[in-house]
Amino acid sequence: MIEAEIPHLRRYARALLRDREAADDLVQDTLERAWRKRHLWRPHGRLRGWLFRVLYRLYLDGHPAPTRDRDKLIALDAIALDPRDRAASNGLQLHCRDVLAAMDRLSPEHRAILMLAALEQPSYRDGARMLGIRVGTFRSRLSRARQQLNELMETDDYTSASAEARG
Amino acid sequence: MRSKNRATIDYEQCVAYYRAGRRIAGAAAIERYLTANPRTAERAERDAQHDLALAHRYDPVLNEPIPPRLLHGHDSSPASWLAGAGLVAMIGLSAAGGWWLRGLEFGAASPTAQTNTFGQQVARLSDRQPAVDAAARVAARPTPPDLSRAGYRFSGRRVVPTAGGQPLTAYDYRNNAGKHVTIYARPEPGAGRRTPDVISPSGVSLARWQAHGHDYALTGDLPPATLNELAEIAAQPTSQDPADQQTPAAPSVKMPQQTQAPAATVGQPVERTVTPRQQPASGL
């Protein structure tokens, strides 16, 4: 039961933190907190939703703490997608790079809800449960997050196009 | 957007429609809606591409093997964790891993059994040196363990927040050579007295023991054998605690493997058992 949920928790944590060890730390902390707060879980509720809610709160509470580690992770991520590797990357990977670059400029709440929607594809109701917010809040927040992401990506496209024109 | 279909089709359904290659339940109705709302269609298709790109990148995580530290915090057999089945059934958490039941069976487990809780927290703190709230206070603090017999002077107490967990009390010590060790402590109601064991969660060696209803972990840039010797001194009963005068059996010393763990298993307690005197005292 729990074991079946761990891959989903790991995927979400990895997407949020972009580092295997930091993500597994977050999942481990999630499981620990869930254990401590087990009295709050209603057996008729969905276990995944509850575990995601715990993970989300921990993420917002500051995982991972050290800023220098976060900087390092972003740098490593950029290296992995170095332009020299583009020839070996397919369009989806390049698009993902652009999406992630834009998402870095969003708030943690917007990053989290966009990742959740992309990876878990929950209904509004399930998504709201997973983040511990109201259905209406989930709906409007996801809409705003999508809108901001697109605006940022359009700005980046414009900036790139301008730079190329100047060059 | 003001069509009659709006009441039954939401935007995320439109995204899912494009994401699934226009092959989902109710596709005909969604297609009619999108035909009537071309701007929404354009936006949903673009958002679906973003979602697909992210899923393409992170879906492989689902097929990775789960690190043992997320499943098993100790070496207990499944049968032993099922000993707590009554409680497990009550809370609805199945016995997917011994890790979940560590709290239920702690009375029968060794201190190493809790590597993934207190031990892992301390290992992460030692590894990452998180921010410390020196002004914070916890309600009940144990007396600082005494390391003066080993030449270490108590130099200060801190309260260290942990990610999502209760704060730990950290006691700092220094000796005349400038070496520094830290003892972390947290209340563990009902904890008995346990002699030190050296474990190495996440590759960080630390010596753990229990006394006075607290978990303790000693860390420092010292060989594991030295950490264990210091822990044994710190764990000795004080004159103010006659109940602790009943010295338990000789401690079993566990030493971490010296080889570097592969990246995929970093974070796991890797250890082997040796007799205490096989390890040379490396100087305190």
UniProtKB/TrEMBL annotation, chain A:
GO terms for molecular function: DNA binding; sigma factor activity. Keywords: Sigma factor, Transcription, Transcription regulation. Transmembrane segments: none annotated. Residues 2-55 form the PhyR sigma2 domain. Residues 98-149 form the RNA polymerase sigma factor 70 region 4 type domain. GO terms for biological process: DNA-templated transcription initiation. The keyword Transcription regulation applies. It comes from the Bacteria. Belongs to the sigma-70 factor family. ECF subfamily. PANTHER family: RNA POLYMERASE ECF-TYPE SIGMA FACTO (PTHR43133), RNA POLYMERASE SIGMA FACTOR RFAY-RELATED (PTHR43133:SF25). This is Sigma-70 family RNA polymerase sigma factor. It comes from Salinisphaera hydrothermalis (strain C41B8).
Automatic annotation (TrEMBL), chain B:
Residues 236-284 are annotated as: Disordered. Keywords: Membrane, Transmembrane, Transmembrane helix. The chain crosses the membrane at residues 79-101. Residues 236-262, 275-284 have a biased composition (Polar residues). This is Transmembrane transcriptional regulator. The lineage of its organism: Bacteria, Pseudomonadati, Pseudomonadota, Gammaproteobacteria, Salinisphaerales.
